[in-house]
Amino acid sequence: MLEDIRAACRRDPALYGIRCVEVLLYPGLWALWGHRVAHRLFRWGVPLLPRLISQIMRNATGVEIHPGAVVGRRLFIDHGAGVVIGETARIGDDVTMYHQVTLGGRGWRRDPKGAHRHPSVGDRVVLGVGATVLGPVRIGDDAEIGALCLVLSDVPAGARLRAPTAETVPSSHARLTPTSPH
């Protein structure tokens, strides 16, 4: 638990000095701790309780981590709202994940029951706001997945993915400005 707290304090620029104590209010931290309990029970084959814990943590934090997901050390989930991590996902050490990240499957028609159907994320990976990684893809160590990226295939180690940025387009409803008679 102390490793998780230190990781958050190191990676979040909003946490410094006495404000570092605010990390105890971070929903990603509580979701991670709840997941560790649920995951252990899941591995022991305890029925229902691991899933109940994950759903309670989801309702309390807005972060959904399936008890079957394997999460490495020092995962930092910043903000947390809307994060979804699927059952067969694997997350390495020192990963940073922002809000609305999904590590999901491709759907019941394409993902056979019992198969590895969620992403594997390497060490020191950064997953930006709203990044969606679907299917049994591999994200290599030290990769950076930018905000709003949709990832459907493997990403090599050290790669940097960026989604297209918004561009300003002239409005089709151009304003008519009154002209001066002078």
Structure description:
The chain is an alpha/beta fold. It has one domain: UDP N-Acetylglucosamine Acyltransferase, domain 1 (3 Solenoid), CATH 2.160.10. The chain is 22% helix and 16% strand. The protein has three helices and 14 strands. It has a five-stranded parallel beta sheet with strand order 1-4-7-10-13.
Features:
about 180 residues; alpha/beta; UDP N-Acetylglucosamine Acyltransferase, domain 1; five-stranded parallel beta sheet; globular
Oligomer: single chain
Q: Give the neighbour order of strands across the main sheet.
A: 1-4-7-10-13
Q: Could you say what the CATH topology is called? A: UDP N-Acetylglucosamine Acyltransferase, domain 1
Beta content: 15-25%
Overall average pLDDT: 92
Q: How many structural domains are formed by the residues? A: 1
Architecture per CATH nomenclature, i.e. the level-2 architecture = 3 Solenoid
CATH class equals Mainly Beta
Please report the distance between the alpha carbons of the first and last residues. Answer: 74 Å
Could you give the order of the helices and strands? HHHEEEEEEEEEEEEEE
Q: What is the molecular shape?
A: globular
Low-confidence stretches: none
Largest β-sheet summary: 5 strands, parallel
SS-based structural class? alpha/beta
